[in-house]
Amino acid sequence: MQNPIIGITTYGRDENKRFSLPAYYVDAVRRAGGIPVLIPPGEADLPALLSMTHGVILAGGGDIDPEHYAGTSHETIYLLDPERDKSELALARILVNQDLPLLGICRGSQVINVALGGTLIEHLPDVVGEDVLHRAPPRQPIAHEVRIDPKSRLAGIMGQTIIVPMSWHHQAIRQLAPSLRVVACAPDGTIEAVEKPDHPWLIAVQWHPEITAANEPEEQHLFDELIAAAQRRMQSKRSST
């Protein structure tokens, strides 16, 4: 059986006109048996691109411009990238209406929510306080508890309902998009994961499973199951022809 090709969105152009992505994402996909292909912002023919992939990961990164969700400016908002916003929001709107398996990570979960009509909290400490740190000063990852709905697909994948993953964000979902379902939260009420019940395989998490996946099997399981879903889809497509 052909190994599934998994598209992974990249960061935007840096000051040296280079696209980049932390290697954690690539490593996690390869461990799961997928073939990673990077998707930089700005691709004009997204349907053609998706016709060559079997699953997609919307990766983390900087903030989405508040203009996309009728939000307000905040001094902590950083790395705004119009090209990336436009590209990823368009990509998400296509993917939610297709049967390609889709995993959103951190920014990726926010992109999915905004693409479907939801909004974001511009700066979490202003709303939930700092009893639970979602990133360490000045801007570093930190672990905190997350509780998962035992009836969710995510719980089945992770194999447990209480985890302590690596978090690295200062924004999160405020108003949930109508077609999404909350399946995990932090102790302070922050939405940590969502699913789309009417989609074959769409899971979005606010934390960063790729960072610890090499040493924490429950985090690697997210990538394993993404690739397994892509393989099932490939098999189904072959059978139907």
Concise structural overview:
Helix content is 32%, strand content 19%. The protein is of the alpha/beta class.
Can you tag this structure with a few keywords?
241 residues, alpha/beta, Rossmann fold, 9-stranded mixed beta sheet, two-stranded antiparallel ribbon, 32% helix
Overall geometry comes to globular
The whole-number mean of residue pLDDT values reads 96
Structural class: alpha/beta
Rg, rounded, reads: 17 Å
Number of helices: 8
Low-pLDDT stretches: none
Main beta sheet: 9 strands, mixed
Strand order of the largest sheet: 2-1-3-4-13-12-11-7-8
Order of helices and strands: EHEHEHEHEHEEHEEEEEEHH
- Indicate the CATH class: Alpha Beta
**How many angstroms does the end-to-end distance come to?**
16 Å
CATH topology type: Rossmann fold
CATH homologous superfamily assignment: Class I glutamine amidotransferase (GATase) domain
- How many structural domains can be distinguished in the coordinates? 1
Subunit arrangement of the protein: single chain
- State the helicity in percent bands: 25-40%
Strand content: 15-25%
DSSP, total strands = 13
Identify the CATH architecture.
3-Layer(aba) Sandwich
Report on this structure.
With 241 residues, the chain is α/β, with parallel strands linked by helices. The protein contains 8 helices and 13 strands. It has helices at 23-31, 46-50, 82-95, 107-115, 124-128, 153-158, 209-212, 217-240; strands at residues 5-9, 35-39, 55-58, 102-105, 120-121, 142-143, 146-148, 162-163, 166-167, 172-173, 181-185, 191-195, 202-205. It is globular. 41% of the residues are buried.
